[in-house]
């Protein structure tokens, strides 16, 4: 039976559970449950602290886990990222008092406050920079004001909290994180084939929609140039002479632009439907 770690709380917990439900897996009904067996799919889920998941997977006690890329790197555990699950996005940035630092190279020799010392240490090593890392559990924005650090490294969303603390971001982000499926090895175990196929199906369904429209046959090449689909669009003759019906998958983020361009071209009856799930 495949054994998979799932975040038991925090921002990754609910989206991870929902994604597994969308992929057809049974999940716990009581948030206090520590484990859930899905006999039909031969999988057992364990609900663990997000920070501990990489450790359990790297030790081999569990086969796979869902956690944040930031937590994986911060743990230093020898586990590998298998699939980006495209939720739980976070951007890590340096931030310092305005006017004190102008480039990341200047952090050498400084004191850096962060709740992710492993992630920051990995960055410093990779870029051959030496600095003192001050580990804090949260509210690191106050560290500079209180004299504990010269700058911070933390998740930045709108920047409002930084501005309140008199800090400004510095340079490019240390990391752009999101939820990832991890395993002990770079190659997933054979028992995970079904899981990976299902999760990929959910990701495609979330990122694409099905677009259907009618268009004159003499405009078909131009229309399908806008909607090439994944493999190829489906084209069917209509009862109305000289017209065809077209169906194609289109990226959700592009669908309104494509609909406008199809309408300008002369296509009509343009309809969009969600894709519940798929196998490509």
Describe the protein's architecture and organization.
The protein has 280 residues and is of the alpha/beta class. It folds into three domains: 2-88 and 177-205, Periplasmic binding protein-like II (D-Maltodextrin-Binding Protein, domain 2, 3-Layer(aba) Sandwich); 90-176, D-Maltodextrin-Binding Protein, domain 2, CATH 3.40.190.10; 208-274, Alpha-Beta Plaits (2-Layer Sandwich). Helix content is 27%, strand content 33%. The chain has helices at residues 13-22, 53-59, 69-75, 117-126, 142-145, 160-164, 193-207, 220-226, 255-265, and strands at residues 2-7, 35-38, 43-48, 64-68, 80-84, 90-97, 111-114, 132-135, 151-155, 167-177, 179-183, 208-216, 234-237, 243-251, 268-274. Strands 2-3-1-4-11-5 form a six-stranded mixed beta sheet, sandwiched between helices. The protein has a five-stranded mixed beta sheet with strand order 8-7-9-6-10. Strands 13-14-12-15 form a four-stranded antiparallel beta sheet. Strand 2 (35-38) and strand 3 form a beta hairpin. Helix 3 (69-75) crosses helix 4. The longest helix has 15 residues, at 193-207. The mean pLDDT is 94. InterPro entries: ATP-PRT_HisG_long (IPR020621), ATP_PRibTrfase_cat (IPR013820), ATP_PRibTrfase_CS (IPR018198), ATP_PRibTrfase_HisG (IPR001348), HisG_C (IPR013115), N-reg_PII-like_a/b (IPR011322), N-reg_PII/ATP_PRibTrfase_C (IPR015867).
């Amino acid at each position: 039976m495949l054994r998979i770690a799932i975040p038991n709380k925090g921002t990754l917990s609910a989206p991870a559970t929902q994604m597994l439900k969308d992929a057809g897996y049974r999940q716990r009904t009581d948030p206090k449950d520590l484990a859930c067996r899905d006999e039909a799919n031969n999988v057992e889920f364990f609900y663990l602290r997000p920070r501990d998941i990489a450790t359990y997977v790297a030790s081999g006690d569990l086969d796979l886990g869902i956690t944040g890329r930031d937590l994986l790197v911060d743990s230093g555990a020898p586990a590998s990222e298998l699939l980006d699950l495209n939720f739980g996005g976070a951007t890590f940035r340096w931030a310092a008092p305005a006017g004190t630092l102008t480039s990341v190279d200047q952090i050498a020799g400084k004191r850096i406050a962060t709740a992710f010392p492993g992630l920051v240490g990995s960055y410093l090593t990779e870029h051959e920079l030496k600095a003192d890392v001050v580990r804090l559990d949260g509210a690191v924005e106050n560290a500079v004001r209180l004299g504990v650090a010269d700058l911070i490294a933390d998740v930045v969303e709108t920047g409002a909290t930084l501005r309140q603390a008199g800090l400004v971001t510095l340079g490019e982000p240390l990391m752009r994180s999101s939820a990832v499926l991890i395993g002990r090895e770079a190659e997933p175990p054979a028992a995970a084939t079904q899981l990976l196929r299902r999760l990929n199906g959910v990701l495609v369904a979330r990122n694409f929609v099905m677009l259907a429209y009618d268009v004159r046959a003499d405009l078909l090449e131009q229309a399908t140039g806008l909607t090439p689909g994944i493999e190829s669009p489906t084209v069917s003759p209509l009862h109305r002479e000289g017209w065809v019906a077209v169906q194609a998958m289109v990226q959700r983020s592009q669908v309104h632009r494509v609909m406008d361009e199809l309408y300008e071209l002369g296509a009509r009856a343009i309809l969009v439907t969600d894709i519940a799930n798929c196998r490509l």
